[in-house]
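Support reply, case 0932

Customer input (verbatim):
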Amino acid sequence: MSIQLSCKYVYILIIFSTLAVSGPSVYAQATDTTAIDSTEHKVKKKDLAGHQLCIGFDVLRPVLNDVTHGGIGYGFEADYYMHNEFYLAAEGGWGNSNVNYDNLKYSTNNNFLSFGFNKSILTRNGPKDWDMMFIGMRLGAANVARSPASYIVIDSVWGNSAGSSQGQAFLAVWAELTGGMRVELIKGLMAGWNFRGRFLLNAKSFENLAPLYIAGYGRGDKGVAFDFNVYVSYGIRWKRRSLGLADAKAIAPVAK
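Our regenerated output:
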């Protein structure tokens, strides 16, 4: 075999060897670039549910005010739909209680506020489906004012003695867990119920002459309180902002 022919075969072998080594690398690089492009232009699914501000009143509380003794309360709630079935929630109200025993008399009144969130655990059937089953958390506080208290200490040996205690102001702070459901009866008008467990965070403030009832919390002499509420609500709704041309170009995938 001539030297010229041998060099030709060696040159062809080098070319094929180079292509065999570099080919997978080039293909992998092209694949990675495609993956990167796909990742860069992957768009989060748009929430089509729109906005909703829902305002409600606890219709069960006035009924309980008439059938229970010692404590009266009223409560309102409001929640605002954010996205992904997540709602910001706030509640407020006022109430009073009256301790009227033979040997102890005093009264309290308070107003309360609580803030937190609800998370619906139901799958939405469509943008106009606002029925929900939810769990949530709150942080609440109540400003409690106690009137002067009068009392009688009964002692069979030394005899009875009467006394009084000055009025005092307290701040009750609690955390709560809640769960419930809400359904739309007609367009915008909704009804639902909540079950709550509340945990008083500063129970030591009420060791002496605790309020019989704290609106928004429950029994003032208990570190843990449970409550049940029934709300009638109305939802105010409006659509989310439409995508403009610049927004559409920003989220649209690049045409291949």
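We compared this against your earlier run and they match. Two observations from our side: Residues 1-11, 24-41, 245-252 have pLDDT under 50 and may be disordered. Residues 3-40 form one domain. Please reopen the case if you see a mismatch on your end.
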